[in-house]
Write a structure and sequence with these properties.
With about 150 residues, the protein is mainly alpha-helical. Helices cover about 55% and strands about 5% of the residues. Strand 1 and strand 2 (about 65) form a beta hairpin. Helix 2 crosses helix 6. It is globular.
Length: about 150
Amino acid sequence: MAILNLTRLEAIIATLLALVLPAKAIDLSSVPVTEEDWDTMLNAIELVESNCNTNAVVVDVNGRKSVGCLQIQQPYLTDSRLSYTLDHMKDRAAAYAVAKAYLRRYGASYTRRTGKPATYEVLIRIHNGGPRGAERAVTLPYLEKVRSKLV
């Protein structure tokens, strides 16, 4: 009887902990991005970057302008190899097209270089830290911000 009560107590404690503790975060390092996941990922990035403000414009201390819902800068835009201007980044569809082109380009580069797939984690960190952003520790806090929007 004592064993049964202990097991019952453990079950009650486990249930209470499940109600109180946050859900386990998605393991973004092992989830390759599928075609239908792009918008989900970019929506989460958009929440972090601009709180979904398509007209957001921020000028950093070096005078570089970040524009639109994804806060795209000129080098990012140029590297996407698409024919848009920074003003076009105020249009969500254009900003998403640029981000997809940029992230596909550097996600493929990451895969060639490492032999690993371009996962959510890799692409989110590339968006934040540039072509080798997935390998830079400085992008980890940004990843956690975006992860919180995906859960």
